[in-house]
Specification:
By secondary structure, this protein is mostly helical. It folds into 2 domains: 62 residues, Arc Repressor Mutant, subunit A (Orthogonal Bundle), CATH 1.10.10; 115 residues, Tetracycline Repressor, domain 2 (Orthogonal Bundle), CATH 1.10.357. Helix 2 crosses helix 3, helix 2 packs across helix 5 and helix 8 packs across helix 9. The chain is elongated, with a radius of gyration of 19 Å.
Length: 193
């Protein structure tokens, strides 16, 4: 009986406060970087006292670490035909980045990984823990080991050039043009023997 009441209970105020802090932190870290982001600025954006940020996250480094917690939300690749796997991956990442590019923790991580060792380590961990197992499930272990890193490089290169560097030759392309152009390169990587 008690468990049902807990499931149907409205979200606690602390959950809302944590989410507000995390959203504000992701925005600040994405736009200003780790060094220029302050606890006071994050608190002001979240409309709370700076002591609340410290209460929930302990330090700026711990807040940054929480902001970098990322689920790539990969689809079940085992259900995708092998010849459509690359198109599915490119479409997924484009959709993911274009839904909310300023609030996307993956873009925050990509921007930060270039200059921050903690972010670079997190990038390695996320892609190793999520891309590689998803590809292994779809392709088998013998075809995945060397390919996961190269596919990650291609997808992260797309994110870097389209959303962070905003190279005109890449930003003018529609999502379908990118899928049609990039997917064959990723497919070739997937099929390499």
């Amino acid at each position: 009986m008690m468990q049902d009441a807990e499931k149907n209970a409205p979200p606690r105020r602390s959950d809302h406060t944590r989410a507000a802090i995390l959203n504000a932190a992701r925005h600040r870290f994405a736009t200003q970087g780790f060094e220029r982001t302050t606890i006071r600025a994050v608190a002001a954006d979240a409309e709370i006292d700076p002591s609340m940020v410290m209460r929930y996250y302990g330090s700026k480094a711990q807040l940054f670490d929480a902001a970098l917690a990322i689920d790539l939300r990969l689809p079940d690749l085992t259900a995708v035909p092998a010849d459509d796997l690359a198109r599915t991956l490119v479409r997924h990442f484009l959709h993911r980045w274009e839904d909310d590019p300023t609030g996307d923790a993956l873009l925050l991580l990509l921007r930060s990984a270039v200059t921050n060792d903690q972010a670079a380590t997190r990038m390695h961990e996320i892609f190793a823990a999520q891309i590689s197992p998803a590809l292994t499930a779809a392709l088998g272990p013998e075809r995945t080991a060397a390919r996961a890193g190269l596919i990650s490089a291609q997808l992260l290169g797309l994110g870097l050039t389209r959303y962070l560097l905003r190279l005109p030759a890449v930003t003018v392309l529609t999502a379908e043009q990118i899928i049609d152009t990039l997917a064959p390169a990723i497919q070739a990587t997937l099929e390499q023997r």
